[in-house]
Design a protein that fits this description.
Helix content is 61%, strand content 4%. It has 831 residues and is mainly α. The protein has a 5-stranded parallel beta sheet with strand order 2-1-3-4-5, sandwiched between helices. Strand 3, helix 4 and strand 4 form a beta-alpha-beta unit. It starts with a strand and ends with a helix.
């Protein structure tokens, strides 16, 4: 076996001499013992190993950083000296390593921070402040994991243990390429995976002959020292060959986005060797940023073939990013993995990769795999424990709902997705006794789940619901109130308010609990008002009570025949008469204290006015009142609160005229994204020249004169949200009947510097072009003088990715979230 070399760069300021010496000792010990057994040699480099030269000293050091496989950074009290480009040598070295890691998934980066004494923390100097800022940044961003230590001996032990585990994992992954099949593990056959693609057959000479010619030219140059007569693309091909030959031994060597996109331009011309294709595909799989195309080289494989290749990569590839994303892609496919495959993969040492394994395991149909997952329920890493428990409960639930529910109540604080789905679909078979025990023993989310299930099945008794009114969680109390209302009990507003007055103190937990929107009286009041008669509602409404807006809305919607006169009056005078009536009623009820109530509400007057006016216009819109348009024009964008704007837009959609386009676009420039999109859509709908209007919005920065001529808006520079406006116009370009015009607008929009605008343009092209047309456009696009990698990567997946993999790319492009039923339930109320 050829001995492999692991290049390690050690970065630290000058106060870590003892730790640097410890690293040298650890590496020396490894190389003399385990390294020989694994045929792995660690080559340790640091600033002291850099040879002198005629360059900036730090630039010479950076070359070693650029070549390393593993970067170890250590900090204590000192930050280091300025390098003229960065505040310290450590910062520059870390930045070089991190930048390359982002682009190529290498080097591996380990950070170690030595504990700082309390005295130093109380009065840190400039050096220590920078160290603390760096540690704080790593903690907040959670991009890289790090370890802390107190003493050098502790650091030495931690580093040696970590290094051994890392080396064993690398050895296991590399040697797995030639290992025999493990009993019970489903592996693709050697015949299926030894050649990454089938389009280059064994013995086919074309690609090899082309390379032989180039290599002969290089040989002549070396021998005769003449001029190399290779063009740019020949040199690029040799670069691909060199990296592909290095990659099997140097497992961290992958292609960056610049290289991958360069080679992609020749995808239909070059006849690649299997090694070259393997490198391109591994780089595609490892890509986390959506900038590296490569599905073209997998085009001859069907969905099953892709899955077989991904399984092979998870079992054999030594690169963490490749394995992690291979597991992720397998989950996207939705295919149930074999228990043997999951059993083999659970031995994964990298925690990020293992979390992906456990998420994939949720699809496994073999109950026996739960025995292997069970050992991870007590893992030290909280993320692994949570992922293992989710997988364990999900798999168990399919076979024995009662057992899974019991275990969830005992060990978990969240409800697995599969259980929320069962509740939604009506397939939950939990016994009433199990659900009742969840109400007393479970977490807030589990109690909510049980409460919803009991209410849906009609098993939430009056006594239980009354008891749940004292539950500490507002969502549980809210469901109990609804159940009691359904049973005939009535509540007054004072009772409702007292039940939910402390909602803001709830929901301070971590994880998914953050999604659990607390219930307020506003969520419950509509159900109460629904049962009131017209006279009760009319008597109740009061300008100085925000709950009254709910009653006002019901009056405007359900009793417009009687209440329409009041609606017209309030829209005409912006609720001034309504305010006077309410003030008079308060004075009659409370006397002088009424003035204090009115004064307190004056601070929220604009919010109150916009709320009531919005309710009034909602009534007009729901009844399609002919005279409503002047009110929509009057109030659109008038208030800083947008409660009236949505209703005004409904009226514009019903009866707007072309003269309203200018007003709608002015409004779209200053409102939030959701309402802005509706405003743009309605403006396009009522415009007499839709194509011209869409162009004016999409290309507004480059075509100011068109804007002025079409909608009369003076050009005053960039709009506050030019990208969002362009995206809205592109998304609603389907209102154009002319497919070619829509396509041309999208093609031009691909030149935008905004990634979001470009993705919207790709959405349009995917909608109007068939596969062959989209492929022809991609061929044309990559020959442009300037183009964007994410556009190429996305179109590559849309055109060439088969089955579920292609569907996933389309869903991602559409902007739809693949949100699970649990998240939907936790965000929404009452359902």
């Amino acid at each position: 076996m050829n001995r492999r070399v692991l290049s390690v760069f050690l970065a630290s300021p000058g106060d870590m001499e003892a730790e640097r010496e410890a690293v040298h000792e650890v590496v020396d010990r490894f190389n003399k013992s385990l390294g020989r057994q694994l045929d792995l040699q660690i080559d340790l480099l640091g600033w002291e190993d850099t040879l002198p030269g005629f360059e900036r000293p730090q630039s010479l050091i950076n070359k070693d950083v650029d070549a390393c496989d593993l970067f170890i950074g250590m900090l204590w009290r000192r930050w280091g000296s300025n390098t003229k480009q960065y505040s310290s040598g450590f910062e520059e070295e870390f930045t070089v390593a991190r930048t390359r890691h982002i682009e190529t998934a290498q080097p591996e980066i380990w950070l170690y921070f030595k504990d700082i004494g309390g005295e130093s923390l109380s009065d840190p100097g400039e050096q220590l402040k920078k160290v603390l800022q760096f540690i704080s940044l790593q903690t907040e961003e959670k991009e890289l994991t790090y370890r802390r230590f107190s003493e050098t001996i502790e650091f030495k032990d931690k580093l040696y243990d970590t290094l051994i585990k890392y080396a064993l994992r690398l050895s296991r992954q590399v040697e797995a390429r030639s290992a025999a099949s493990t009993e019970g593990v489903t592996r693709p056959s050697r015949k299926e995976v030894s050649t990454v693609l089938d389009n280059v057959k064994s013995g086919e000479p074309e690609g090899a002959e082309e390379l032989f010619g180039m290599l002969s030219t290089v040989r002549a140059y070396i021998k005769e020292k003449g001029e190399v007569s290779l063009d740019f693309w020949q040199r690029a091909r040799l670069n691909l060959l060199a990296v592909s030959l290095l990659s099997p031994q140097h497992i961290w060597e992958l292609l960056g986005p610049h290289q991958q996109n360069l080679f992609y331009r020749k995808r239909k011309e070059w006849n690649l060797l299997p090694q070259e294709q393997a490198l391109l595909i591994r780089s595609l799989v490892a890509d986390d940023r959506g900038t590296q195309p490569g599905w073209f080289w997998l085009a001859k494989r069907d969905e099953k073939g892709i899955s077989g290749l991904l399984i092979y990569l998870t079992l054999t590839d030594g690169n963490d990013a490749v394995r992690r994303n291979a597991f992720r892609w397998l989950r996207v496919s939705g295919q149930a993995p074999s228990s043997g495959f999951i059993k083999s993969s659970i031995s994964e040492q990298d925690h990020v990769v293992l979390a992906e394994v456990l998420q994939l395991a949720e699809l496994c149909e073999d109950q026996d795999i739960t025995k292997d997952i069970e050992v991870l329920l007590d893992a030290k890493d909280a993320n692994i424990r949570d992922a293992a428990l989710e997988a364990y409960l999900t798999i168990s639930f399919r076979a024995d709902q009662a057992k899974a529910i019991s275990l969830m109540t005992e060990k978990s604080t969240v409800v697995p997705k599969v259980m929320w789905k069962a509740l939604k679909e009506g397939s939950l078979e939990a016994a009433e006794t199990s659900l009742m025990s969840m109400l007393t023993e479970g977490s807030a989310e589990i109690r909510e789940f049980a409460c919803r299930a009991l209410r849906k099945r009609g098993e939430l008794s009056k006594g239980t619901a009354e008891h749940l009114l004292k539950d500490p969680d507002s969502r549980v109390r809210g469901i109990a109130v609804l159940a009691l209302m359904e049973g005939g009990r009535s509540f007054n507003l004072e009772e409702i308010s007292s039940l939910f007055e402390k909602f803001q103190k709830e929901n301070l937990g971590l994880g998914l609990d953050r999604l659990r929107k607390p219930v307020m009286e506003d969520d419950i009041a509509p159900f109460m008002f629904e049962k009131w008669e017209y006279s009760q509602l009319k008597e109740y409404i009061n300008y100085y009570d925000i709950q009254s807006a709910i009653a006002y809305r019901l009056l405007a919607q359900k009793h417009f025949d009687k209440f329409g006169v009041v609606v017209n009056r309030d829209l005409q005078d912006a609720c001034q008469e309504f305010k006077r009536e309410s003030a008079s009623r308060l004075a009659g009820r409370f006397g002088l204290p009424a003035e204090k109530i009115i004064t307190a509400y004056e601070k929220t007057d604009e919010f109150l006015a916009s709320t009531f006016i919005g309710s009034a216009m909602e009534g007009m819109a729901s009844h399609a009142v002919k005279d409503a348009l002047p009110y929509a024009r009057k109030y659109l964008g008038r208030f800083k609160y947008e409660t009236a704007d949505e209703q005004a837009l409904l009226i514009f959609e019903q009866s707007g005229e072309e003269s309203d386009v200018e007003l709608l676009l002015r409004f779209a420039e200053k409102t939030n994204r959701d309402i802005m999109s509706d405003a743009v859509r309605i403006a396009i709908t009522i415009s007499g020249n839709r194509e011209k209007l869409i162009r004016s919005v999409v290309f507004r920065e480059d075509d100011a004169e068109v804007i002025a001529s079409v909608v009369g808006i003076p050009y005053v520079g960039s709009s506050p949200t030019p990208d969002q406006l362009a995206i809205a116009a592109l998304d609603h370009s389907g209102l154009l009947e002319n497919k070619d015009a829509r396509m041309e607008i999208a093609k031009e929009a691909l030149k935008s510097n905004s990634e979001s605008v470009r993705l919207s343009a790709v959405r349009v092209l995917h909608d109007v072009l068939d596969r062959a047309e989209l492929e022809n456009f991609l061929d044309e696009y990559i020959e442009r003088e300037a183009y964007f990698y994410n556009v190429v990567s996305l179109m590559d997946a849309l055109i060439y990715a088969p089955g579920a993999y292609g569907h996933h790319a389309a869903v991602k492009l559409s902007g739809e979230s693949e949100i699970d039923d649990r998240v939907l339930a936790l965000k929404g109320f009452p359902q």
